[in-house]
Amino acid sequence: MNHVQIRRKDLRKILDAAYELFYRHGFARVGVDAIARAAGVTKRTLYYHFDSKDTVAGAVLAHQREHALKRIESWTLGGADDPAQLIGTIFDALAEWAGQPRWLGSGFTRIAVELADMPGHPARIAAKGHKAEIERMLAARLAALGAADAVELARHVTILLEGAVTLVLIHGDPVYIASARNAACRLAGAVNHDP
User: Which of 170, 107, 95, 127 shows the shortest CA–CA distance to 87?
Assistant: First the structure.
């Protein structure tokens, strides 16, 4: 293995370890020493790739973005015939995901909330871009299914999705996903469809 391959492998190990630690324990409770130890690299190697824990966090979310978008995309590419059916499918998939052992919600949302007082933080910027992309993806899919005001409907559904995830985490009760699903489907039914 050459030097460049070793560096790439180390980078991947750092990103994977940091994501797992940030997801399980939160950004503030994880230090650079713990990330390096979990990745099996030295602090010097970590600092070769990143100048701070903040840039590690931004890179972690950028690295996880593709995986998360594929999951959301799989939720929206089913055989839905209308906006309400698509929305129901999305919330059903969310309920299934939330039912997995050790589920702690969206890592993007959790780190953005943890860093709420730091709008310029690399992780906040990455989370904002990710959430905006999901909303655009949803709006495009809703428009393709005939929703007249797909952008506004996508925003409402996004609010309900984020609220459901947050309340399930707070209360430990998945009923919030079902309630948000019902509200979102009602909204979709109230939207006029293009002829």
Answer: 95
With a CB cutoff of 8 Å and minimum separation 6, the contacts of 32 are: 43, 46, 47, 53, 56
**What is the maximum alpha-carbon separation in the chain?**
61
Using alpha carbons only, what angle is made at residue 119 by residues 116 and 122, rounded to the nearest 5 degrees?
Answer: 105
Percent of the chain with pLDDT over 90: 79
Tell me the whole-structure pTM to 2 decimals: 0.85
35-64 tens-digit pLDDT: 999 999 999 999 999 999 999 999 999 888
3-state helix, strand, coil in the chain (%, to 5): 75, 0, 25
Element spanning 177, H or E: helix 175-190
Residues 6+ apart with CB under 8 A from 178: 91, 95
The first and second tokens of residue 170, run together, are: 């707070």
Q: How many CB atoms lie within 10 A of CB 40?
A: 11
Contacts of 118 (CB under 8 A, 6+ apart): 124
* Rounded mean pLDDT, 92-114: 92
First-to-last CA distance in the chain? Answer: 60
At position 109, the amino acid (one-letter code) is T
